[in-house]
Amino acid sequence: MIVSSNSKTEYDVSKIEEIAQKFGLFSETAEILYNRGIKSDEEIKGFLNPGKHRFSDPYLLAGVKETVERIDMAKESGETVIVYGDYDADGVTATTVLTSALAEYGVNVIPFVPERAAGYGLNNETIDALIEEHFPDLIITVDCGISCRDQVEYIKNLGVDVIVTDHHELPDILPDCLCVNCKLPSESNFPWLCGAGVAFKIACALLKEKAYKYLDLVAIATIADSMPLIGENRDIVYEGVKLIKSGKASAPVNELIAVCNVKEVTATSLAFTIAPRINAAGRMGDASSALKLMLAKDKESIERLALRLNSFNQRRQLDCETLYKSAREKLVNQAYDKKIVVLQDDTWNGGLVGIIAARLVEEFSRPVILFVNNDGKLHGSARSIDAINIYEAISACKSHLIDFGGHGQAAGITIAIEDYEGFRQDIEKYVDEKYDLDCFRPEKYADILLDKPFPIKLAKEINMLEPFGTGNKKPLFAIKATELFVMPIKIGSPHLSLRSKYIDMLYFNAAAKKDLLASGAEKHIIFEPNVSVFNREESLKGYVKDVEYIVDPSEKIALEAFRESLLTALNDNDDFLFVSERMTENLVLEFSNKYFGTIFAFYNVENVALYPEIEKLDRSLFETANKNLVNNVVIGPTALNVTGYRRIIYLDRPLGNVPFFGLNETFINRSRRAYPFDKLITEKRVFAEIFKKLRDNEYFKAESSAEFAAKCPLGYHKMQIIFVLEVFIELGIFYFNKGNLRYNPTVKTNLEASKIYTEVEKLKP
Q: Strand, helix or coil at 167?
């Protein structure tokens, strides 16, 4: 189902127009701001003019004043301070920021990040080793520690002070020490900083504006940790991107930009280039290399370490693909019907399961927790969809937990091996009882549904809303289209060029969908506007992100579905089971009550109403509506991706055999024909009459027989025209080429050579 922001009250329309006029914006831009909650003059001015002038006073963050006082004491007394971070990009950059700021402030500081094998957060064995080697007076955590109450007590009992700086969700009982966490109540009232963001606020309290030189690192961390790009995060990322673009970023960041060959620095490009390489070091068991790079000063070390991180990332990509295939296969075989996916494998790399969990969440629209065995315990990475708070779900199963931390969309968890089944069952029960099917339906969203041409000036204005990312996605637009001119961008290309009356578009890797796109069925095309420059000339293209066919009992849908039902006569597949109407009803009752794994297929959309149990399911034309295995209805199935589905039930019967999609459970209702095929006229005089009209008027504009029949019924019922045309096309007498019906005079044959014709003949009484 496509979701758009176009449903507006009269008040909304008037406010949007007021914003557009006051700020000199296109109404579409004003509407995007309005629908994203940016409505007041002050909010709009701030959003359109982000930057350091909007940074909040660091002392508004609870605990910063006391932290500065304790740091001053350490400085005056010549104490040794350890900055204890985390092994991911946020943790490494947070460690770099606070270490660098403390050193500049005159504190004797030692940076440290653990390796992933030691586990997330403070670890008693690691603490013992650090204290034995460095004899610190104070340990300051960054990006971790808020859930480490016991470890903090352990450190204090050893005579070392602790300050916890973190941004993760607050546990029921906080550590008994000074804590700086953006989620604690404070005057700053901004709970969305990343770990490096919290460290940056402390650095600002110490160094004032001199701390702004760290904004490149803080921006990368904010992006890497998927923090929402709103409020102060937007200002941080805006300034950080600007710093990197200017070439004045730190030498390590500049070197990574060069190694990654980043041509245009944006929040999006940093998310796909720099952030993964910093993360890769920790994922591959060498987080210290990332920290060494970020703190390095000499050119040789910077170049060598940047190449090492790049190499780690290449290995990580290969290993991720292997792990993804393994985890996906397990999901499809073991958890396809679960609202939350919990899987475990001893061979998986613990440093990569978080990436794979996130990828599976995106693909299957369900929370995913992947566990690996490490030192006799199961360590898991959890990721979730927006509708489900994974932190709350895991918290509800706390009797099984050894260690746990995170936030609403991501968490780390440790449990005993023997607790795995109990934990899996309890969290499945929790999610099953609390969340209904609507939470798992992936929605196709567009910010604006267009009904007029898209000007290039609007596309350029949209770029004013940068930086884009979590919490501020790049706006998507949609058009409703029936007739499209669809062609490969060049011969043999997998990419398509789509021409509409509103905007020209590119659809990458969509060659297999050409005929469906060119069909006369109404569809929403969701796209992202992009302006490119070639030879100093600007051009606008829409990059297609998704297509949704509009399924309703319209004539166009009926004609397209009828055409598909005729084409089944060309199938040789016999891998299915005919069932009676009563058995069909039993199958519907059984599987409509389960959320996942079943496709209900029709060739006549009007027949859906005969089965009220499935009327509320998402519907699609030709292909599955959802890729996450949620039950759905498909009209005229032709291009189904059924990977992971268990069964397809055809509730009406086409002319021939249904296509083979590889499912073992394929049922066809033998009692209900989709259409009265026996009423089609097979007399040769009718074929001869229609043949003559087609031959003598060759240049009919259409992309398919269904579109042709809708425009040119030639005095017959439209389904009769489709039938005749498809017989002629099967025999090679006519064909469609570049939107025109063409005649091939070289073909000499007879009607009985057509499978479509003979199948209809068989049904005659």
A: coil
Domain ranges in the chain are 2-49+444-549, 58-311, 335-440, 555-675, 678-762
For range 569-598, the mean pLDDT: 92
| pLDDT tens sequence across 498-525 | 999 999 999 999 888 887 788 777 889 9
Cβ neighbourhood burial of 408 (10 Å; 0-12, 13-18, 19+):
middle
CATH number attached to the domain at 678-762? 1.10.10
> Strand 410-416 relative to strand 477-481: parallel, antiparallel, unpaired?
unpaired
- Report the length, in residues, of the chain: 765
In 3D space, the residue among 266, 264, 316 whose CA is nearest the CA of residue 290 turns out to be 316
Count the helix, strand and coil residues of the chain and give each as a percent rounded to the nearest 5: 45, 20, 35
Q: pLDDT (tens digit, 9 = 90+) per residue, 433-477?
A: 999 888 887 778 899 999 999 999 999 999 999 999 999 999 999
Contacts of 106 by beta carbon, 8 Å cutoff, 6+ apart: 75
Please give the helix or strand (H or E) that residue 264 lies within, else none. Answer: none
So what's the architecture of 335-440 in CATH? Roll (3.10)
Upstream peptide bond of 185 is cis (omega within 30 degrees of 0): no
Which has the minimum average pLDDT: 3-12, 182-191, 542-551? Answer: 3-12
Measured CA to CA in angstroms, residue 130 lies from 94, 111, 113, 266 at distances of 19, 11, 11, 38
Rounded Cα gap, residues 439 and 319, in angstroms: 31
Q: Do domains 58-311 and 335-440 have the same CATH topology?
A: no
CA distance 737 to 516: 15
In angstroms, rounded to a whole number, what is the distance separating the alpha carbons of residues 678 and 99? Answer: 81
Q: Is the predicted pLDDT of residue 6 greater than 60, yes or no?
A: no
Range 555-675: architecture per CATH: 3-Layer(aba) Sandwich (3.40)
Q: Per DSSP, what are the bridge partners of residue 413?
A: 380, 404
**Which pLDDT score is estimated for 3?**
53
Picking from 705, 655, 706, 652, the residue whose alpha carbon sits closest to that of residue 677 is 655
Entry pTM: 0.84
Burial class (CB in 10 A: 0-12, 13-18, 19+), 488: middle
Helical spans, DSSP H, in 593-741: 684-696, 705-711, 718-731
Give the Cα separation of 712 and 709 in Å (integer): 5
Fold classification of 2-49+444-549 (topology level): OB fold (Dihydrolipoamide Acetyltransferase, E2P) (2.40.50)
Residue 369 contacts residue 385 (beta carbons within 8 Å): no
| CATH 3.40.1280.10 matches 58-311 | no
Phi/psi of residue 262, nearest 5 degrees:
-75, 115
Q: Spell out where 87-218 has E strands.
A: 108-112, 138-142, 161-166, 178-181
Share of the chain above pLDDT 70, in %: 99
Q: Distance between terminal CA atoms of the chain?
A: 42
735, β-bridge pairs = 742
- Which of 210, 128, 202 minimizes the C-alpha distance to 167? 202
pLDDT at 120 over 90: no
pLDDT tens-digit profile of 309-324?
A: 999 999 999 999 999 9
Q: Which two tokens stand for residue 157?
A: 């009992």
